Amino acid sequence: MIKAHDHDYQHAGTACEGYWAFDEGKSGKRPGILVAHEWNGLQDYVKKRTQMLAEMGYVAFAADIFGKGVRAKSFPECEKISAPYYQDRALTRGRAQAGLDLLAKHPNVDTSKMAAIGYCFGGIVVLELARSGAPLKGVVAFHGQLNTPNAADAKNIKGKVLVLHGAIDPVVPPAEVAAFEKEMEDAKVDWQLVSYGGAVHTFTNWNLPTTGMPAAYNEKADKRSWLAMKNFFAEVLGQ
Amino acid sequence: MIKAHDHDYQHAGTACEGYWAFDEGKSGKRPGILVAHEWNGLQDYVKKRTQMLAEMGYVAFAADIFGKGVRAKSFPECEKISAPYYQDRALTRGRAQAGLDLLAKHPNVDTSKMAAIGYCFGGIVVLELARSGAPLKGVVAFHGQLNTPNAADAKNIKGKVLVLHGAIDPVVPPAEVAAFEKEMEDAKVDWQLVSYGGAVHTFTNWNLPTTGMPAAYNEKADKRSWLAMKNFFAEVLGQ
Question: Looking at chain A, which runs of residues are DSSP E strands?
Answer without folding.
Answer: 2-11, 14-23, 30-36, 59-63, 109-119, 138-142, 160-166, 191-196
